[in-house]
Design brief:
The protein has 14 helices and no strands. The protein is mainly alpha-helical and 324 residues long. Its main location: membrane.
């Protein structure tokens, strides 16, 4: 049995090494690189207004500082975690999150060890639940705040349009939005106006908020202001069109959510059913499944089943996840 485990580990290691080697040595696609060069030449020498606007759009994107990746990079996991906690809008601190995760992991580890007597399984369950449940709670809070923000952002843009058409400057209309709209939209625009009051430029203030939120909708707003400042034009009309686009985008998301709800429910049921059946059988007759924690053959079979279940869950998640 020891030889079988070694063979499995060697096979997995060889497969991972082959995948990493292919990813490192494959290099960029020559056809894609040629297409990028032809596109850049077309943008540089074309007289079309649409091409000029798109070229300015790409130039603005390239000039934006990727400070979110600097904050949330691999060299500073704690700053990345602090950024996630800040995006929830709940006022949770890093120490509270770590204490909750550690306490939950320790409680699960003790309970599982007292029930099964398997230290490795207890450690794995403690790490999985102690790290997974807080992460899911934070992600849920972030998604809820993001949905609230994207729902109210078109109203904020309409308010900006009315302020601009009445003759107010952009900075004043941002202050009106911060004071009139409740929820995360008003909070974020209030932070923007506060940065402008202490001497930051409007572009830098909006850039800080865009880096922290990391939302396509707000990025569209920032890029629209940057392009309008470079190329000129009617800002009120541009923001009005952007508001209409964001509303249609939200409607499309709701349609996709409704169309994929049945598939998501099926995926949740299929993915959770093995764990529910295992827990029920273990609760009714623990002796029947106790060998899964001590017998090497059953441990390997269980790990293989979990691996294939994870692959299937990943495929089902990709099938029902649509990005627009």
């Amino acid at each position: 049995m020891g030889n079988m485990i070694q063979l499995i580990l060697m096979s997995v290691g060889m497969m991972v090494a082959m995948v990493l080697g292919y990813a490192a040595l494959s290099g960029p696609s020559a056809s894609k690189e040629g297409g990028r060069r032809l596109q850049s030449v077309r943008f540089r020498h074309s007289d079309s207004a649409m091409d000029k606007v798109e070229a300015q759009y790409r130039k603005t994107l390239a000039a934006r500082k990727p400070r979110t990746m600097k904050i949330a990079g691999s060299g500073s996991r704690m700053e990345a975690l602090e950024l996630r906690l800040h995006r929830t809008g709940k006022g949770w601190t890093l120490s509270q999150y770590l204490y909750f995760s550690g306490g939950l992991a320790l409680a699960v580890l003790v309970i599982v060890y007292l029930k099964t007597g398997a230290p490795l399984m207890a450690l794995g369950a403690g790490v999985l639940i102690g790290g997974g449940i807080p992460h899911m709670l934070v992600s849920r809070a972030i998604n809820k705040r993001v949905d609230n923000f994207t729902t109210r952002l078109p109203d904020a843009l309409d308010l900006l349009v009315r302020g601009l058409r009445s003759g107010l400057p952009v900075t004043e209309t941002l202050g009106v939005v911060a004071s009139e709209l409740p929820g995360p939209v008003g909070e974020e625009f209030k932070l923007v106006t506060d940065r402008i009051k202490v001497g930051r430029t409007m572009e830098d203030a909006l850039q800080d908020t865009a880096d922290r939120l990391n939302m396509p909708e707000f990025n569209f707003f920032c890029i629209t202001l940057a392009i309008q400042r470079e190329t000129g034009g009617n800002l009120a009309e541009t923001l009005s069109n952007l508001s209409d686009v964001l509303r249609k985008r939200a409607q499309m998301k709701l349609k996709i959510k409704a169309m994929s709800s049945e598939s998501k429910a099926s995926a949740y049921i299929v993915g959770s059913l093995p764990f529910i059946v295992f827990a029920l059988i273990y609760w009714i007759n623990p002796v029947y499944l106790s060998k899964f924690f001590v017998d090497e053959r059953l441990i390997i079979a269980g790990l293989g089943g979990l691996t294939w279940l994870g692959i299937g869950s990943f495929i089902m998640a990709k099938m029902v996840n649509f990005e627009i």
